[in-house]
Amino acid sequence: MTTVQKIKEVEDEMARTQKNKATSYHLGQLKAKLAKLRRELLGPTGGGGGGGGLGFDVARTGIASVGFVGFPSVGKSTLMSKLTGTHSETSEIDFTTLTTVPGTLKVHGAPIQILDLPGIIEGANDGRGRGRQVIAVARTCNLIFIVLDVLKPLGDKTIIESELEAFGIRLNKKPPAITVKKKDKGGIAITNTVPLTKIDHDEIKAILSEYKLSNCDVAIRQPNATADDLVDVIEGNRVYIPAIYVLNKIDAISIEELDLLYKIPNSVPISSREWLNIDELMDIMWRRLDLVRVYTKPRGAPPDYSSPVVLRRGKSAVEDFCSAIHKEIAKQMKYAIVWGASAKHARGQKVGLEHVLEDEDVVHIAKK
Ligand SMILES: Nc1nc2c(ncn2[C@@H]2O[C@H](COP(=O)(O)OP(=O)(O)OP(=O)(O)O)[C@@H](O)[C@H]2O)c(=O)[nH]1
Ligand SMILES: [K+]
Ligand SMILES: [Mg+2]
């Protein structure tokens, strides 16, 4: 039996099994089995095929990247070409784009790389077409645009989400607040600071046993933690990426139909052909990228607001700011003065290399 067939078998058995007290151990086992099979499938020697990385290795530029994922002919290339001015072939024929086409877009002084990708279809992650390569590129992006055709958005949305999920991508989600600490002896100890509503001790034990974890401390601080959350923590190779649902081709529907579509969370209706509502899309893109702009203030001169140093959240300490300018600057720095949201007072605050900067802060570096 191939890995794909084994996955199908486990999925079928899960669908047949009703969740209740008596079945939770069994369901826990099945969920862990499924995660292991998927890992096998997606590994370097995975049975899924899909070809090598040909044409998918693009030079990564810019401070952050946005990948366009969607079914064929939803308008990904039309949007990417118009946004970046880089030509990417468009047509009414499916699978027009056959490789990753990169373009650059400057937003609030920050160069953002836009990656137009080939269309994917159901079964992409088990090797159909170039789906696996597309999803592998999406895994490395800082933000994903899931582009949907407004004439058939909901079915497509579910399929794309599950293809990305199966590849270990978690959309619009934070890593679960669960820790699993291995020990040499002592068996299994489960503690929870929140009530367990979606998982019970039997299911937790089944999952641990499937991963041969017979001595460990499990601590659950995640409200409504699920078996899948626990499996994600144990597997450990998940990526958590923000996603925006871009509902394209609104020029083809009525205002009444549009009102219904707005109810999809994290969605933005647009028309890439008629260039409608692109401003809103850009605003939301900027917010979800969550970048930190820092303005440099030379001694005795006003700050330079024209070209910010752009940093990523989580890598926005004064030290990161220094290395973004020149690798020697951190060594030469005596202290920095910071004005803005991260500073304690409006007059400016004297800080060191470890101080974390906020968006639109102004920084002066005093040298030794
Ligand atoms: N009505 C309408 N048609 C659009 C819009 N955007 C794109 N299209 C049309 O949809 C078709 C597909 O557009 P593409 O940009 O090639 O779509 P794609 O998603 O890149 O397609 P693949 O590369 O094949 O996956 C073309 O005929 C476009 O002109 C839109 O906003 N409204
Ligand atoms: K197309
Ligand atoms: Mg295309």
Automatic annotation (TrEMBL):
GO terms for biological process: positive regulation of cellular response to amino acid starvation. Residues 64-290 form the OBG-type G domain. Keywords: GTP-binding, Nucleotide-binding. Gene3D superfamilies: 3.10.20.30, 6.10.140.1070. Signal peptide: none annotated. InterPro entries: Beta-grasp_dom_sf, DRG, G_OBG, GTP-bd, GTP-binding_2, GTP1-OBG_CS, P-loop_NTPase, Small_GTP-bd. It comes from the Eukaryota. GO terms for molecular function: GTP binding; GTPase activity. Pfam families: MMR_HSR1, MMR_HSR1_Xtn, TGS. Residues 290-367 form the TGS domain. This is OBG-type G domain-containing protein.
